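Let's study a protein:

===
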Amino acid sequence: MTDELSLIVEVARESMIKAINHLENELIRIRAGKANPQMLEGLTVDYYGTLTALNQVANVSVLDARTLTIQPWEKNMLQPIERAILNANLGVTPQNDGNSIRIFMPPLTEERRREFVKRAFGEGEQTRIAIRSIRREAIEQVKKLQKEGLSEDLTKDAEKQIQDLTDQHIGLVEKHLTAKEKEIMSV
């Protein structure tokens, strides 16, 4: 296979891996009734007039399966952190005890679990679309090379390789979604 074809296939592989990584990050944010510090990732707090990531102003840890604790490095940050959590609309209410903030994960109802599964499958569909789009772009590049004189055998081999990559990554999406559905629906 030519260097150009190898590059096209490699770029497609890396892009598909990025799509899978994005899906994994999004699925982590969909809570399954268990406390997970990553559900607060991306949360910003007003730190003396500057929006700052929560993990840069406080320590977030798991106390038990259903409780997160947030220990700010400065006591006067309790209110802004509490406000940021409420404004993030995570479906949880922070409890401020004057020294730290605790977040108790309420048990999920059957209806809420189904909503989370639906949301997870929506994220999965977005990832599938992204992977198919990467495949389409890579195959278009290969066909362009064919018009420039690339042999038909090399073109078919590259297209098959790209399709195999696509199938492999779509399979990973399905695996992640099945695992997340099981996690959410288990009581």
